[in-house]
Design brief:
This protein is of the alpha+beta class and 195 residues long. The chain has six helices and nine strands. It has a domain of 110 residues: Aminopeptidase (3-Layer(aba) Sandwich). Helix content is 32%, strand content 32%. Strand 2 and strand 3 form a beta hairpin. The two termini are 17 Å apart.
Length: 195
């Protein structure tokens, strides 16, 4: 799958991803009444498309079909991160998250925040985000509990370093006898770990 910047012409496809995620993944943690209210958003396709042109929005597509989207807006906030229900837990969200996080890091933004659902909270906590506040919102007359999370500079850097390939040291004793100074050291890079 290819990750690319959002285009305004993607709006209707992105709305389908959003609603599919809410309807197919949402029932894991939300009532039917909450799902019905949540999936009514967005009510205006044009306004939603304009919202997605702000900040940095990416889509993940294959063969012209969009399966996921994510947005940083402002540049230190994960505003959206959604995948279709049939791609849930297949790594698309992680790949989009990584691309957005790399964008933020390259812009010098390290401390991040977001407001997430019950479903997304473990995903972000695994990446070093911590709970700041539990908030309640009412959408279309139905109450939801959301979580404001943030990640400090220290936690962000620790998470980033933990994902780098580690260097291991291997002493090659066959070379030790040929060198008066001592053993030669051969450094082998471990395979990158994936989140």
């Amino acid at each position: 799958m290819k990750i690319r910047p959002f285009k305004i012409s993607d709006t209707s496809s992105v709305i389908k991803v959003y609603r599919d995620a809410v309807r197919r993944i949402g029932p894991i943690a939300y009532s039917p009444e909450q799902i019905a209210a949540w999936s009514r958003y967005p009510t205006d396709e044009r306004d939603f498309g304009q919202r997605l042109t702000q900040g940095h929005t990416l889509v993940m597509e294959e063969n012209g079909i969009i399966y996921a989207f994510g947005q940083l807006h402002p540049r230190n906030c994960f505003a959206f991160l959604y995948t279709t229900g049939d791609t849930h837990r297949k790594g698309l969200g992680t790949r989009l998250y990584d691309a957005l996080e790399s964008r933020a890091f390259s812009a010098g933004v390290i401390e991040m925040h977001t407001e997430v659902s019950r479903i997304a909270r473990p995903f972000f906590e695994k990446r070093g985000f911590t709970l700041d506040e539990v908030v309640r919102h009412t959408h279309f007359g139905v109450e939801f509990e959301w979580y404001r999370l943030s990640r400090s500079r220290e936690a962000a850097l620790a998470h980033r370093l933990a994902r780098l390939p580690s260097a291991s040291v291997h002493v090659d004793h066959s070379l030790a006898n040929r060198t008066p100074v001592g053993p030669q050291m051969a450094f082998n890079r471990a395979q990158p770990r994936h989140a």
